[in-house]
Amino acid sequence: MIAGLAVFVIYLYFFIGIPKIIVVINNINSSQYVFYYSLALVSVLASVFLWSAAWNSILRTLSINISYRSAYLYYWVGYFTDLVLPCATICGELTRLYLVQKETRKGYGIIAASAITNRIAAYTIVTIGLFSGAFLIFLRPDTSSVITNVFVFFLVAISIYMVALLYLAFVRSAASNFAKLYGSILKKIRPKKYQAESETQREISLSTYYTGFKIFRENPRLLIRPLILHGISYLFGLFSYIFIFYALGIPAKPEFYVVVFFIATAVQDAAASFSVGSLDIVLASIFILYGINTGLSGITALLVRSVGFWFPLFTGFVAFQYLQTKNLVTDTQLGKVMRGQVKLQKNNAKAK
Q: DSSP for 79-118?
């Protein structure tokens, strides 16, 4: 992140120019800026809540009951993991899977099925949006080859990602193959930790994993609510970007917002912390392509990333710390209860 920020600062200094940026800052309407920027932050919070609500809807369909508050908290913790670690949303899903299993004691297989089903629903919306944005970009005769190549790369990447998700959902042997690969790797790198009975446990998890997908395959209408919630969630995410442009007084056509939002979403999900700096520069280049002056493009890219990356990173960190504190308090209270029970047993023993 630090290296990416340094690169973006160099870009602003040499390619945009500090005097141009200062002129833009001096011309910003402060009251308008505060109002719309606040709305942008609220939209991010609402977007994440709806995303977690869609996930919770899938969990409840599979008889995994957690509160909306817990789902919201777990999503933020997973989101923080995704933003810090560049592992294409996998680390965040594993984090949420662990937290839900810890609370509900349900099998990892059924929880994994809910995670992948939720990703399929979410990325159906993202895929449609990204292809729509690419179509609008390719229609412009003045589109640079760099931006075209960026879009082509992420169109291919998101297509592969969707195929992989569908493969895990519809091909029965898919998860089994991954489980066997995981077992063989674990056996080689950590032979002392490897236990034969863990294979039996994985077989049990796989059976519940298949059951989870079977429910949705046999009744696809159960996915309507999550799809609607994800659609509204991404609308709020789109609004957060629109409010940034309103905060800076930039008029734009709807196609512009679609292009900016979905390319930023796709790049950030794929590259996470590695997107810092590189994505900022790509966004600034797109703004310039659409006729926004260079100084304003640099500031806009910075603010767009502030609501799309830095604010979620900070909020996710707070959620992570809150969860740590909550667990610490719970463990302390549990420890007191257990120590009290032990003390009571000793006293009873002495009395006898």
A: HHHHHHS-STTHHHHHHHHHHHHHHH---HHHHHHHHHHH
Cα atoms found within 13 Å of the Cα of residue 144, Cβ hemisphere only: 10
Helices (H), the chain: 2-11, 18-26, 30-61, 68-84, 90-104, 108-138, 145-170, 172-189, 197-218, 224-247, 254-271, 278-289, 294-305, 311-351
Q: What's the whole-model pTM score? A: 0.78
Which residue in the block uniquely carries the two structure tokens 């609607």? 228
- Rg of the chain (C-alpha set): 24
In angstroms, the Cα distances linking 92 to 9, 181, 251, 253, 289 are 29, 21, 36, 34, 34
- Are 296 and 24 contacting, i.e. CB atoms less than 8 angstroms apart? yes
What own/partner pairs with CB < 8 Å and gap ≥ 24 does 92-99 have?
93/119, 96/55, 99/74, 99/323
**Quick one: tokens of 21?**
């940026």
Q: State how far the Cα of 168 lies from the Cα of 172, in Å rounded to an integer.
A: 8
| Residue for token pair 């609510």 | 225
DSSP state of 28: S
Task: Encode pLDDT of 316-352 as tens digits.
Answer: 999 999 988 877 655 555 455 555 554 555 556 566 5
